[in-house]
TrEMBL record:
Domain HTH lysR-type: 16-73
Lineage: Bacteria, Pseudomonadati, Pseudomonadota, Alphaproteobacteria, Hyphomicrobiales
Domain of life: Bacteria
Presence of keyword DNA-binding: yes
GO molecular function, one term: sequence-specific DNA binding
Keyword entries, A-Z: DNA-binding, Transcription, Transcription regulation
Family: Belongs to the LysR transcriptional regulatory family.
This protein's record includes keyword Transmembrane: no
Database matches in PANTHER family: HTH-TYPE TRANSCRIPTIONAL REGULATOR (PTHR30537), TRANSCRIPTIONAL REGULATORY PROTEIN (PTHR30537:SF3)
Gene3D superfamilies reported for this sequence: 3.40.190.290, Winged helix-like DNA-binding domain superfamily/Winged helix DNA-binding domain (1.10.10.10)
Any single biological process term in GO: DNA-templated transcription
PROSITE patterns: HTH_LYSR (PS50931)
Name of the protein this chain belongs to: LysR family transcriptional regulator
């Protein structure tokens, strides 16, 4: 009796190649073999052949093929779940390798929270001069990008440092304070962040302040929250450098305790090989030193 081309017993000890799994991930990501082929720079027949080889190797049908689409089978979904971390790891390897091949023309990438990035934007010209002749790429996010794998060159971290790499160096460059601001000293409404108060110190602080007041809106983006407060929607949690500088807003609560956070500049040791990154780091430190009084509020 002839064995099936998808005989799991015959193929049980054969490991799929990473090249085939990479093509499989591309097909899933792009939704079709033709789109995956374009993204990979290969022909559609080559992609189809490699998918067939992968199916034969694992002894499973990975896709249900319709007239104009592909859908993962249950087994295909399981293989996707198993292979996805491999794809992510490969991407990290590529970024890490690129990070260890310094490109003198690459932009200096700074990652920070939205409130810190907005502050930096006020001095973008000064920072641009420090980075010249390359440009600066600002990455505003609350997520900690992986400096060790090259997702960014400089990270401005607040309060706690838990990077988990001995190759990272950090220095405290200042503090930044936050408070509640509104159009009036006794606001009746509050603009709250969307986070669970049990998971965020800022959200917990605003939730306590909001007791007995109306929640007018929940806005996570700080610049939008600022504009809403300025428009009179309600009181908002803002960085002091921004709230104190706006004549339309008054400081309803004083910055104290946990509302004053340390700011650390974090870099990977290899960044010292890029003079423009070092110049920008020094410019950032000087910027925070010069503006420390405004950053901690009154």
């Amino acid at each position: 009796m002839a064995s099936s081309s998808l005989d799991p017993f015959r193929l049980a000890f054969t490991e799929p190649s990473w090249d085939d799994l990479r093509i499989f991930l591309a097909v899933v990501a792009h939704g079709s073999m033709n789109s995956a082929a374009k993204a990979l720079g290969q022909s559609q027949p080559t992609v189809a052949r490699r998918i067939k080889v992968l199916e034969e190797t694992v002894g499973l049908s990975l896709f249900q093929r319709g007239p104009n689409n592909l859908e993962l089978t249950e087994a295909g979904q399981a293989i996707l779940d198993a292979a996805s971390p491999m794809g992510e790891a490969a991407a990290i390897v590529s970024r890490t390798a690129a990070a260890y091949r310094p490109d003198p023309d690459a932009p200096v990438r700074i990652t920070a929270t939205a409130s810190v990035t907005l502050f930096l934007s006020l001095y973008a010209g000064e920072l641009h001069d420090a980075a010249a002749p390359v440009e600066i790429a600002y990455i505003p996010t609350r997520h900690r990008l992986d400096l060790a794998s090259g997702e960014a060159d400089i990270g401005l971290r607040m309060r706690h440092l838990s990077e988990g790499s001995d190759d990272l160096v950090a220095r405290k460059i200042g503090q930044i304070a936050f408070a509640i601001y509104a159009r009036t000293e006794n606001p009746k409404a509050v603009i709250a962040p969307p986070e669970d108060p049990t998971l965020s110190r800022q959200a917990a602080y605003v939730a306590e302040f909001a007791q007995g007041r109306t929640i007018a809106a929940r806005i996570g983006d700080m610049p939008i929250r600022y504009q809403a407060a300025k428009a009179g929607l309600g009181a908002a949690f803002l960085p002091c450098w921004l709230g104190d500088s706006d004549p339309d807003l008054v400081q309803v609560t004083k910055p104290e305790g946990d509302l004053i956070e340390d700011v650390f500049l974090v870099m990977h040791r290899r960044s010292r090989n890029r003079p423009n990154v070092t110049r920008v780091a020094n410019a950032l430190a000087n910027l925070f030193k010069r503006n420390q009084k405004a950053l901690v509020g009154g």
